[in-house]
Amino acid sequence: MVTELADDMIVCRCEEVTVGEIKNAIHEGARDIVGVKRRTRAGMGLCQGRTCEKLVQQLLVQELHIPPNEAGSSSARPPVRPVTFGELAKGEVI
After folding, report:
1. Are 57 and 68 spatial neighbours (Cβ–Cβ below 8 Å)?
2. How many Cβ atoms sit within 10 Å of the Cβ of residue 41?
3. What does the pLDDT look like over 9-19, one tens digit per residue?
4. With b meaning 16 or more CB within 10 Å and e meaning fewer, what string describes 9-31?
5. Could you tell me the CA-to-CA distances from 86 to 17, 40, 80 in Å, in that order?
6. In this model, does residue 1 exceed pLDDT 50?
7. pTM
8. Do residues 18 and 57 make contact, with C-beta atoms less than 8 angstroms apart?
């Protein structure tokens, strides 16, 4: 039994993306996690989807009636820090 989630529930805390925004993205053509990510920024925050990707996947499965492996996954990217031009010029990137 699948519990219906409220549209105003936050799924991606980093980017403050709601269930309703993800459902809208799916209804507008997103067919996998990368498609939802491109339309809503869910999974693009500091955690790179580590806290929200599973829920986004579940919403895709529920809305599209597809198996979980068809929802895909996104590629995580490590957090970066700003680097000054001076650091780059000296080659002293820490």
Report:
1. yes
2. 15
3. 999 999 999 99
4. eebbebbebbbebbbebbeeebe
5. 36, 35, 17
6. no
7. 0.75
8. no
